[in-house]
Specification:
Elements lengths: L1 H20 L3 H21 L3 H49 L4 H12 L7 H6 L5
Helix pairs in contact: 1-2, 2-3
């Protein structure tokens, strides 16, 4: 029993060090989940099954899933930003190749996209239009 606890302790420390020095984020997240799982086994052998179950459920499973979900959201946002940057660069390059002023084109696009004020019937009649 003492040997098993010692082996789990060494595995716990080794996994924690490995999680710190991983080069890929996903590998580090999964390794931190392994650290928590080994910790739950350590609590089980120490005679605290309730703490072991809580550590396995929250520390190992839920935290790892939340970290992976957050990482995927961050990557999606970065991918969107990169695509927008590439599109903007391509648009500027096309404008320069055709000898057009991209700033002027962007201003025209903003003016065209802006909402136009509505003129009611009374104002139209004052301007000489049909009511």
């Amino acid at each position: 029993m003492i040997v098993l606890i010692f082996v789990l302790g060494v595995l716990l420390i080794t996994s924690a060090a490995a999680a710190l020095y991983m080069k890929h984020i996903v590998s580090a997240i999964i390794t931190s989940g392994v650290v928590s799982l080994v910790g739950s086994l350590f609590f089980l052998l120490a005679g605290a099954p309730d703490v072991a179950m809580t550590e396995a459920a929250i520390g190992s499973a839920l935290t790892t899933v939340i970290f992976l979900f957050a990482w995927s959201r961050i990557r999606d946002e970065q991918d969107r930003q990169n695509a927008a940057d590439q599109y903007q660069e391509k648009y500027q390059e096309q404008g320069q190749e055709q000898g057009q002023d991209t700033q002027g084109k962007q201003e025209q696009a903003q003016i065209a996209a802006s909402p136009r004020p509505r003129i009611n019937a009374a104002e139209r009649a004052q301007k000489g239009g049909k009511a």
